Amino acid sequence: MREVAVLGIGQTRVDEQWDKSLRELAGDAVLEALHDAGAQRADGLFIGNMMSGSANHQQHLGAYISDWVGMRFAEGLKIESACSSGAAAFRSALMAVASGDLDIAIAAGVEKMTDSPGGEITAELATAADADWEVDHGISFVALNALVMQRYMYEYGWKHEDFAQFSINAHANGAHNSNARFQKAISLETYNKAVMIADPINVMDASPIGDGAAAVVLVSADKLRSNNGRPLIRIVGSGAATDSTAVHGRKDPLWLKAAELSAQKAYRQAGIGPQEIDLFEQHDAFTIMATLSLEATGFSERGQGVRLAVENEIGIKGKIPVATRGGLKARGHPVGATGMYQLVEVVQQLRGEAGETQVEGARYGMAQNIGGSGSNIITHILKAD
Amino acid sequence: MREVAVLGIGQTRVDEQWDKSLRELAGDAVLEALHDAGAQRADGLFIGNMMSGSANHQQHLGAYISDWVGMRFAEGLKIESACSSGAAAFRSALMAVASGDLDIAIAAGVEKMTDSPGGEITAELATAADADWEVDHGISFVALNALVMQRYMYEYGWKHEDFAQFSINAHANGAHNSNARFQKAISLETYNKAVMIADPINVMDASPIGDGAAAVVLVSADKLRSNNGRPLIRIVGSGAATDSTAVHGRKDPLWLKAAELSAQKAYRQAGIGPQEIDLFEQHDAFTIMATLSLEATGFSERGQGVRLAVENEIGIKGKIPVATRGGLKARGHPVGATGMYQLVEVVQQLRGEAGETQVEGARYGMAQNIGGSGSNIITHILKAD
């Protein structure tokens, strides 16, 4: 397996981007990544996207976007694994370069959700759950997460307010990220008084949707003679695992087995453990998911993930900084693009380009993208040399 | 890049399978492939599918089907490139094994189209074309192909009847395939008198949709000590290329540039040319596509692909046998599964398991899967030793 390095990154702001079509959004991120890489084109384009077929009436994004960015004739695919489609596209591009088949590939994620001609986004998002065994019985995605959060609080004795710092930290960091959907810090009072969506999840526990795209250019590391004086950033670990689509199918609904398995594989490949990770772009779609991800990925004991928030060990100077550019909560969650935003943000940190939210001396960065209610989880570890 | 071999194959019949859910259809093919391989599970499942999100209200097929087939916790992804989603899934599984990251992977394709709760299938299929530049102006997929066929007949002087043998050959072969949707030979008269859909494409020029699934188990060839006394079947060439999504964007709408490029890459990797290919499972979604594919892939001169049909060089004993198990025309075209059916059928031929339509002494088999109106084309060459 060839070593693979990141040559360039690009992203649009996550927002209501009604003046941009799907191809323009994706194109802006891909062209910025190519420019950043100093490259004209790539051998292949791997697009993470969940709902373009239904929400935008456009499938077949591989060919569609390759052509738009001036890469006609390159390989082009769309990869879908619900909210983890972004990291899945990254992993697919990684495999194509690692195998030796492609020399340079682009992984991108795009989602256009806020002015969909296709219908109602809550229903679209529910297609990530089990249609027969969950959705047809009337449960939405946030309701599934609310059941899990209720159970967690009951089992381990935490209060709703204990989760506040996940939201406060994300918004504090997002305030310094010009690509974030929300660029304003929030107070504990804002968190506590936020509108309830599905008890106990209020609007400050939940990440916002958005329109956005992010992209990374990958090359074989041994072909990389120079990277314009910037640190060489290699992908040193990559793991993917699934779990039952329906939450009720799991032995333990409070344990993200797929997070554990994918992180273990990534750690093993990288030859490190959680203690070496300098920052963690985790999938904080809901505060309960942020909690469970910290536990399964090895940053805390079972039932104690939320303690890292309570003790504010998740800030930029904490034991394990998370959501350093705003996370899903403040940067926003354009579902199929989110995993790519996480990876772009890890690269920003490892390059030392994260401005006011820079983690000092960051060398190992991890990104973990969760699809469904923990049913498809993909973990990557990047290293700066 | 590690060499990769086929360990097992599985398929369902292409039909109106109203008694099977999406997961049951996919599961039947995957479990048959695992059984054929003598394996219990694989490290990853790569599912080709186009329209489950809209037609079946179910995305996230990687996790969904992994769990159903007893492969919970394995990696699982859905890959989409319109009608070439099947071959795209195969190529993704191939890259994962070739890179050394996975040791055993399953590529599968599934589509459930005939009893969709999601809406009208012609509109779903149109999402493979360009939404802004083609579909919103009212053109359907068959109409796009009809324009191309009109132009071809005008430029090169062929008559409609000259295309008949593509359809007659496919139905003659499909009559011997118990998994084909249509298992009955047709006459020239049937072809000539068939109902017109979009002039000059009549119903015998066009392939039928259907519900179906097909799967292949892939392993690293160097780990394969024995294959139950069956020939070792290796993937010796794999190429993918795109073209403009909108047909009007191309310099020459009568030349499948993506077929040429993907086939050239596959030939180069295999170290052979078209003259070594013993059979060609081509993408005969329409007779005009069968024609153009033969030209761009090197089996005939420009404008002369249809001559191979006229002279019946496409039969089992012809110069280049095509649609040996019925092709899209008679086996049926469950879009995201089609590319996987083609590969399963190539393996049947290379194993000598193709019964009445066996190509004698077949050693090299090629499969070519076309997405959109020629905008995403993936070519594989398999070899039996």
CATH topology group of the largest domain in chain A: Peroxisomal Thiolase, Chain A, domain 1
What integer is the average pLDDT of chain A? 95
Measured between the Cα atoms of the first and last residue of chain A, the distance is 19 Å
* Biggest protein-protein contact in the assembly: A-B, 65 and 65 residues
Total number of domains of chain A: 2
Shape assignment of chain A: globular
Q: Main sheet of chain A?
A: 9 strands, mixed
Class computed from helices, strands and strand pairing of chain A: alpha/beta
Q: Unreliable stretches of chain A, pLDDT < 50, 5 or more residues?
A: none
| The top level CATH class name of the largest domain in chain A | Alpha Beta
Give the C-alpha Rg of chain A. Answer: 19 Å
Helix content of chain A: 25-40%
Structural overview:
The structure is a homodimer of 385-residue chains. Chain A is built from 13 helices and eleven strands. With 385 residues, chain A is α/β, with parallel strands linked by helices. The longest helix of chain A has 17 residues, at 335-351. Chain A has helices spanning 22-37, 52-55, 61-68, 85-98, 121-126, 141-156, 164-174, 188-193, 257-270, 287-296, 305-310, 327-330, 335-351, and strands spanning 4-11, 44-48, 75-80, 104-111, 196-198, 201-202, 212-220, 233-242, 279-281, 364-371, 376-384. Helices cover 34% and strands 18% of the residues of chain A. Chain A is globular, with a radius of gyration of 19 Å. In chain A, strands 3-2-4-7-1-8-11-10-9 form a nine-stranded mixed beta sheet, with helices on both faces. A two-stranded antiparallel sheet of chain A has the order 5-6. In chain A, a hairpin with a 4-residue loop joins strand 10 (364-371) and strand 11. In chain A, 66% of the residues are buried. The model of chain A has no long low-confidence stretch (mean pLDDT 95). Chain A folds into two domains: 4-119 and 210-223, Thiolase/Chalcone synthase (Peroxisomal Thiolase, Chain A, domain 1, 3-Layer(aba) Sandwich), CATH 3.40.47; 123-207 and 235-384, Peroxisomal Thiolase, Chain A, domain 1. The interface between A and B is large, with 65 and 65 residues.
